[in-house]
């Protein structure tokens, strides 16, 4: 890693690592004289582990790097990891174990929105500081709950990134929509659907698709019949790949937009069976550039250093913004660390460096959504790399 790259990634953290203050630790849960316990959870096994280890390992790499520099105020971070299996009941059990058995100081976790929601009551009632990893459902952090913070784009914000991009696409006057029938999809699509027609764009078909569907023929054929200029999808990766595959099969050749759930376009291409189905796909993203871009070179080096046996991927970037918020909060809370002081410190963050995210982070007592900006990604014409298109349309093919 170049000196410039190192400075960019760890700016502001070296001082925190070296700021060792005199005094012994208090009796706060999860804090010793030389350690801070941070709980983390996500899907760690099976197909859904795509949204577990890769996402969680990004923040873990940052925490490991800070530990190597001496920790925060002389304390090193210890990670306690639990499996949620993208399941609300298992996520609730994981949260309870972290809080009551492992006795962690705070939690930085949650990627599957529905599962993350399963543990929110326990987190709210306990008052433990909680930095959401990558889950986007609005009601996880809205309205404001004192101890819950989200650095990444919310679900409705995700939909608005899609809308802002769509209205700048040339020749788009009629769109078709396909979406899941759950809270996750509703959060992402509600504002989009409510505002699209005010921009002079007509919704000519709005179809539903169940989770774990095995065929999208009905939705694709209905869309093809009405001849849309573009399609907006509010689907999980497996179903988004299914839709794009059937769209290619039946000749529905128009731009297709997706949420940040499918911003790992290399994964979507693999699921869809190749470049053909996704050659004209655009996905919302809350990361400024994918792994492999020069903008994320320093983070790629960080992942290679701390996880040498793993392939660096864009998913590693998802939770990094939250890790920088946690570190800055711990630094500001001081050596005499308590949960209340950390929560108070989070509420003072303004313009905080957020690693690969599209904006710096800001939290206040009245606003716990740290970043409300996003961008759009697509694949290069040869399918070999992900391109950051930007917030508005431009021809990059």
Gist of the model:
The protein has 397 residues and is α/β, with parallel strands linked by helices.
- How many helices? The count is 14
Q: What characteristic shape results from the CA principal axes?
A: elongated
Alpha-carbon Rg, integer: 21 Å
Query: Which sheet architecture does the biggest sheet show?
Result: 7 strands, mixed
First and last CA, distance: 31 Å
Mean pLDDT: 92
- Residue share in helices? 25-40%
As laid out across the biggest beta sheet, the strand order is: 7-6-8-9-10-13-14
Q: Could you spell the SSE succession in H and E letters?
A: HHEHEHEHHEEHEHEHEHEHEHHHEEEE
Percent of sequence in beta strands: 15-25%
Number of strands: 14
Strand pairing plus helix content: what structural class?
alpha/beta
List the uncertain runs: 2-9, 14-26
What does this structure look like?
The protein is of the alpha/beta class and 397 residues long. The longest helix has 16 residues. The chain starts with a helix and ends in a 7-residue tail after the last strand.
Sequence-ordered SSE layout with sheet pairings:
Elements: H1 3-10, H2 13-18, E1 35-42, H3 53-68, E2 76-83, H4 88-101, E3 106-109, H5 113-118, H6 120-126, E4 130-132, E5 148-149, H7 155-166, E6 174-179, H8 183-195, E7 202-208, H9 217-226, E8 230-234, H10 237-249, E9 256-258, H11 265-272, E10 281-285, H12 297-306, H13 320-333, H14 339-346, E11 350-352, E12 361-362, E13 375-379, E14 386-390
Parallel strand pairs: 1-2, 1-3, 3-4, 4-5, 6-7, 6-8, 8-9, 9-10
Antiparallel strand pairs: 10-13, 11-12, 13-14
Helix pairs in contact: 3-12, 3-13, 4-6, 7-8, 10-11, 13-14
